[in-house]
Amino acid sequence: MTKQYKLLTPGPLTTTQTVKEHMLEDRCTWDDAYKNLTQTIRQNLLEIAEANPETYTTVLQQGSGSFVVESVLQTALSEKDHVLIISNGAYGNRMIEMAQRINKRVTAVKVDFENIPDFQQVEAVVQDNPSITHIAMVHCETTTGILNPLLPFTEIAEKYNLITIVDAMSSFGGIPIHVEELNIDYLISSANKCIQGVPGFGFVIAKQATLNNTKGNAQSLALDLYDQWQTMEQDKGKWRYTSPTHVVAAFHQALIELDKEGGVEARYNRYRELNEYLRKHLSEIGFEPYIEDANQSPIITTFLYPYETFDFNDFYQKMKEVGFILYPGKLMDTPSFRIGNIGDLEIEDLYNLIGNIRKYLLEEAE
Ligand SMILES: *Cc1c(COP(=O)(O)O)cnc(C)c1O
């Protein structure tokens, strides 16, 4: 065995030994057993989303999470459509850039990274632009760890009859989301985040009636979510083109382990406890979070440097030597770094981490 670090990152993250072991078998993409694996995954994801299989569907798509976001933008938006994208971080900004690059009609509402969006302002933009047909937002903005509330977002969509796109990449499976109750049209996530699989594909929980209207919208063949859906439905679990078979098998095992843990609610509670523990003990030794408590997600936290001469690269190396991989910050003007607390982690791991951080600070102060 090679050295197994604890990845305190928002994915790829630390997976269990058993999830990794399920990648030891080679599988065929056209074989019934493999196709059944895909079908089981699709059904399980609908259960996690609390979405009715009569009205919702799951489409799996090769690539990292961004490929799936792009496939949704490609497919959901026709030439006549107009999407409003709310952004308070790098992933919201990436969605805006994608929509622009692929020549979709887009209006951006960009807000400060440390704040949740002002939904009155969002509503005013919708009122000023009657051509808007779709509205998109990131749920947990992994850039900072801020959690954007879904309810005011879906309420605007309901009021103005807009189709909703939610990037729940870093929250789905780790925070309960009632997709059907919220009437979300497209919810996007990926294999290597809160479900605790390995990277290689993402998925969309989509309202069937909405997806059914998107035939011919995509100007990309490989990223056409409608075509992908049709093949998966008609061929009962067959992916278009080669699928990441080992990753799919690992993901299937990760879903079994999520269920064994007690489902999303139990996982949410574990993540929340880990996050609270981390923030409490780090704040005691001088690390202040960037996001205020009320808006902080239980997934990942941005911490400010504890003192001006703090050398993150040195800190990173020292923590790596004792088995922990931390995550650099993604803020332009504020020196910061991030600690993710999702994956196969327990309080004991964070206890060890904090002990090592204390030791580091003492040595630095000498
Ligand atoms: C991880 C993530 C993505 C996708 O990133 P990839 O590197 O393409 O997997 C998109 N949005 C959010 C909020 C994420 O956390």
Give me a quick take on this structure.
It catalyses: (2-aminoethyl)phosphonate + pyruvate = phosphonoacetaldehyde + L-alanine. With 366 residues, the chain is α/β, with parallel strands linked by helices.
Describe this structure in words.
This protein is α/β, with parallel strands linked by helices. It has helices at residues 17-21, 32-48, 65-76, 90-101, 119-128, 151-160, 208-211, 225-234, 245-261, 263-284, 312-321, 347-365; strands at 6-7, 56-62, 82-87, 105-110, 134-138, 140-141, 146-147, 163-167, 186-190, 201-207, 300-304, 324-325, 327-328, 336-340. Strands 2-10-9-8-5-3-4 form a 7-stranded mixed beta sheet, with helices on both faces. A 3-stranded antiparallel beta sheet has the order 11-14-13, with no helix packed on it. A hairpin with a 4-residue loop joins strand 6 and strand 7. The longest helix has 22 residues, at 263-284. It starts with 5 loop residues before the first strand and ends with a helix. 46% of the residues are buried. The mean pLDDT is 97. The protein binds pyridoxal-5'-phosphate (PLP).
